[in-house]
Write a structure and sequence with these properties.
Layout lengths: L1 E6 L2 E4 L4 E9 L7 E6 L6 E6 L6 E3 L7 E6 L4 E6 L8 E7 L16 E2 L3 E6 L1
Length: 126
């Protein structure tokens, strides 16, 4: 069983930065491709970025490309999302997702992920 815990969300002004973390206990994180999704009020959950289990491959949504960076430290069982030049439209609950076990990834389809965290709120004020 993989339990994911996100942290690092908060309130920031437009143009500011935040760094989210996703940690896990239980099985080693290094066996799972991992992604970040987000969901704004009244909208569907959308893909933000994903990283392969090794960290060698990454995908980004066009809306965050050049501003967000995903990375992982498998020794610390942690995946990070560095968010720079934040915009009010980045306001959402951000979710970490992992899986499936033993595959390379990364994947942008939420249906391909087995495990999800509870989410962390990111609010960007104008």
């Amino acid at each position: 069983q993989v339990q994911l815990v996100e942290s690092g969300g908060g309130l920031v002004q437009a143009g500011g930065s935040l760094k989210l973390s996703c940690t896990t206990s239980g099985r080693t994180f290094s066996s799972y491709p991992t992604a970040w999704f987000r969901q704004a009020p009244g909208k569907e959950r959308e893909f933000v970025t994903a990283i392969s289990w090794s960290g060698s491959s990454t995908y980004y949504a066009d809306s965050v490309k050049g501003r967000f960076t995903i990375s992982r430290d498998n020794a610390k069982n942690t995946v990070y999302l560095q968010m720079n030049s934040l915009k009010p439209e980045d306001t959402a609950v951000y979710y970490c997702a992992a899986g499936p076990f033993g595959t390379s990834g990364p994947y942008f389809n939420p249906g391909q992920y087995n495990y999800w965290g509870q989410g962390t709120q990111v609010t960007v004020s104008s």
